[in-house]
Specification:
Blueprint: H1 32-60, H2 64-67, H3 73-84, H4 103-109, E1 116-120, H5 127-137, E2 143-146, H6 155-160, E3 164-167, H7 172-182, E4 189-191, H8 193-196, E5 202-206
Helix pairs in contact: 4-7
């Protein structure tokens, strides 16, 4: 290489040797980018690996069912079990009681051979006769009536002053039938020993006109 074609300035390596060529070797200086790009590449790769690892760790533990808004198996099972379980039968309300027997049913249950006596203890004439006719037309035969009270203690009846039905032992069906025909409440139907020892099954004491 000629001196005019040698691009580098003289230095300690430029020692003359036979042939005229310098001893030292000169290389072209490296640019800043050629020195920095390997470090930048490593930094980009590390950042990508770190981002991928964080994304994998944060999203890997999610339940697909929960991510989609679905109920967990335990919740679904309990929900379906509660939905399919039969509801408990409601307890009957006080109003849902067995209806009272009709007058016809009570008359049908009474002994057709039973005898009845109707007493008028009030001041209104004809009470006993009217009640007697109601009993006969209602289906109870063997009914009689009188205004003469029986020879027994009637203090409980006269002190109350309300229509009352007395019946003998085992004659509750006949008493209920007579009371239902005459409209006398069941609370006023009472068993009495005097009736048990009499020829009649039922005694009816009237003070006011029957409502039946």
């Amino acid at each position: 290489m000629t001196k005019s074609g040698y691009p580098y300035p003289p230095d300690e390596f430029d020692v003359a040797v036979p042939g005229g060529a310098p001893v030292g070797v000169h290389r072209a200086p490296r640019s800043g980018w050629s020195s920095a790009w390997p470090f930048l590449l490593v930094a980009v790769v590390c950042a990508a690996v770190a981002w991928g690892g964080i994304t994998l760790l944060s999203g890997g533990g999610d339940d697909p069912a929960e991510a989609q808004g679905g109920a967990s198996p335990s919740v679904s099972a309990s929900g379906s079990a509660s939905a399919s379980a039969p509801s408990a039968s409601p307890s009957p309300s006080p109003s849902a009681e067995t209806p009272e027997q009709s007058v016809a049913d009570l008359v049908a249950a009474a002994d057709p051979a039973a005898k009845y006596m109707v007493y008028n203890l009030g001041t209104v004439q004809g009470l006993a006769a009217t009640a007697n006719a109601s009993l006969v037309s209602g289906g109870l035969g063997g009914s009689e009536y009188t205004a003469t009270p029986p020879e027994t203690d009637l203090s409980a009846v006269t002190s109350a002053g309300t229509n009352v039905v007395w019946y003998g032992e085992g004659r509750d069906k006949e008493a209920k039938a007579a009371a239902a025909i005459l409209g006398i409440p069941e609370a006023s139907v009472v068993m009495n020993a005097a009736v048990t020892s009499s020829p009649q099954a039922v005694w009816v004491f009237l003070f006011t006109a029957p409502t039946g």
